[in-house]
Amino acid sequence: MTNRHETKYENLSSHFRLKGHDYQKQFCHLYAHRLAEMTRLLTPLAQKKWGNKESIKKLCELRGEQDVHCILIGTIYKHQAHKPSILRDISEENQLAPQPPRQNYSEPEDKIVLEDELQRVRLQGEVKRELMATGVVCAALGGTDSEGFFNVEDILFYESGPQKPLATTKKSRLLVLVSGLDQLQSHNFVEALNLFQYWLAGSLGNGKEAGAMVRLIVAGNSVRASAMAHVPTLQVARTQANANDTVQAVTQLDQWFASWARSLPVDIMPGAYDPANFMLPQQPFHKCMFPQAAQLASFQAVTNPYNCRLDDAFVVGSSGQNVSDLLRSTSLDSALEALRCTLTWGHIAPTAPDTLACYPYIDSDPFILRECPHVYFAGNCESFETALHEGSQGKRTRLVCVPKFSRTQSVAVVDLDTLECRQVNFSADAE
Amino acid sequence: MSLKKALDDCLIDFDRRVLVTDLLEEYKLPYKEVNDVLEAYIKTQEPSTKFEKRFLVHGKRKTQGSDSVEELYSVVQESKLKDWLAKVQDAESQLYSVEIAGGSKSPAAIFKPMQHLEVKLAKVEQRPGAEKTVPISNGAPLTNGVKSESSKSGASKPDSTKSSVKVEPSKTSLKAEKPKAEVEKPAASKGKPSPESKKTSPKENASKAKPAAAKKGSINSFFTAAASKPKDVKATPSKSPAASTMENFFKKQPPGAKKSPPEMEEKTKKESTAPPKTESSKKKSPAPRTKPSPANTSVQLFDEESAESSDEEEKLDKLRRNVIGSDNESDQEKPSTTKRRRISDSEDEEQPPKKTAEKEVVTVDDDKMDTETANETYLDEDGFVITQRKPAKPQPVKKKVSPKTSAPVNKKKSPPSAGKTGKDGPKTKQAGIMNFFAKKN
Predict the structure, then answer these.
(1) Cβ A381 vs Cβ A390: under 8 Å
(2) How many CA atoms lie within 13 A of B205 on its CB side?
(3) What is the pLDDT of residues B289-298, one digit of tens each?
(4) Which residue does chain B place closest to A230, by CA atoms?
(5) Which of A195, A242, A297 sits opposite B127 (nearest CB)?
(6) Given an 8 Å threshold on Cβ–Cβ distance, is A252 in contact with B186?
(7) Could you list the residue range(s) of the whole structural domain that residue B407 is in?
(8) ipTM, two decimals
(9) Residue among B69, B77, B126 whose CB faces A295 most closely
(10) Which of A156, A184, A201 is the last residue of a domain?
(11) Which residue stretches of A287-394 are H helix?
């Protein structure tokens, strides 16, 4: 029996922990703080990129003048005709025709508007409107025209800030990412799950590789991976049965996590369909849910999104709600591109709180990426995708779309030394 | 006992599918060794008996639509092994499961948390605070089953992890079938207490209450399971002479609600005859494989039954999950029950959660319906719900009704629930208006 490599670990998710639960506040505070914080971060970058000749102005300073060449910093608002609207939902009560739900409501006719603290201006020019999303903060270089548009010549995003250099140790350290364990449907992929756990433990003849696995992150939807069918019913027995299933699934997960956590450190994040709070940031599962596993120091329930540092590698990830929401509101064609965009924009979940539920923060925006991660992942994607994103100033970030295990029976393995990433698939041939 | 000896003594039942991973757990051997021993055994047996084998193929292959290479662990049947080895790079294969071809029982899905670790954490630390609660959990000294439970879950200090690994063989015994049956139970049987919990604390009433609570499977049971420790701490004094306090009564009530206290005692007595075997084996477990044959035979006898039942449970469980997963079922059920539910819901808001109880309520409501329809509410010709608030006698109602209305017909048509809900819901407007005019007249 060999021992597993050890790494220095630091949980950097404290800012995702909610200290209060005041849901009475408006979301404008969140946008205001996002703009203020990002303006502070973007200003030196804009000056560095475009020089001091171009002045950074507020919209109110333009006063409707034409041909003013300047830099504007503001929040993107994407006007979309088919965006989900609560007002439209309410219209159902007035017996108007309900709008059909859309998987994607991005259209070429969408209008891009830049808003600062006081005013807004419509953008045109070098703006990829299909790829933009509401909530993104950017600096735009351009000029006003007679029609009241701002003609964008160049656009600058924060790109997630500076990145600490990754010290290379010569020993391999592997981070295992898995998501969508979907315990309620696990009877469909029992053998894959069985193989996976023995692979973690190094029992499948992979002892050397297993020794290098330093951590397992379970990125959401461990209990359930799809929405529960909400059939309007008064039948108490049905809700009771659903509750029973969930409780049983959690109990089984507890046993497995307890078993796995003896082999390596396990972090479990809540997901969109897990029995956890709905709004981002999702809070860690309570330890009472995993009484066996919670006894081990190597097991911990963490927030979604989740930040941690393993030795020098800064790891940031979510359970995938940010990416899936972005895919609905833009024309981005893959989860990987959506993930890349959030990294470029410097914000984990720009569409929150617009179309993605989020706690109404009044004094901060915890989703801003102030430090560029080395590993950036999103869970519960349809398939495994990965790319090494190379940003400005030599920043390198491994992007990983972690596939749903319940669907693909696959996990992602990232080498924290080289940032290489690969997929490991466990499958059983159908009989 | 070594795997080879177990095979030679025919202690492993290949009628059902035997997984190599189960043998790993059983005999604490590396995969390769189990594979070699098993292959050698099968070769000796093969001419006379035909085995159905599945192999674990490990290799690399290109992912579809991209150039990236994915690592693959795939379980394939023997017939397809060659194809797989051909299409996978750096392919290597090992046995994964074996069963006699056309075995008597259909293979059941198997999955359980692993106990045998080839690679493990150098130091498995227990979370501060967790350590203290465990020994008290059943309000009993450390020497009872609780300790082994905690060590089994791997919750103890580094030393205990060793013991936790060792605990397993005695629990599962030497026969390969046993783990299957045991594993399937927790996975399959809904609401059944896990076999582990059965074994750990058979003597204790309090500990028995735990699985029973889990049996109910309610949210409450979840929390009781999670927070069992503090409760049990409280429960300990209840075993002392002052056991018949109200507090104690309420604690014992939920798990054993159906049983009277004497029955509970009887049951514990009955069980205390059977479980000591398992418990004793568990206690002795750290000395590995010292009790070979007697335990085995008993397990074999027991296993026949439990295996079948677990299979059935597994199937039922699968079926049930599939049914729950599909949306259709709820739609089908809906029309048959909604009406009654609505009635009961409107009549009585404080329904007990049980289905049986709900039915009772509904029947009571039906009775009410019969009595109340005659005098309370009806629809007039324009479809308005008219509610007469005089509950005492139907005669005045008839008097007040306008001569046009054919009251008896309308009365029969009008559902009492509509009238009742009309009092609270939006329909009250109509009823209220009509009442207003009726009073004016």
Answers:
(1) no
(2) 20
(3) 434 334 444 4
(4) B327
(5) A297
(6) yes
(7) 374-440
(8) 0.86
(9) B126
(10) A156
(11) 321-329, 335-345
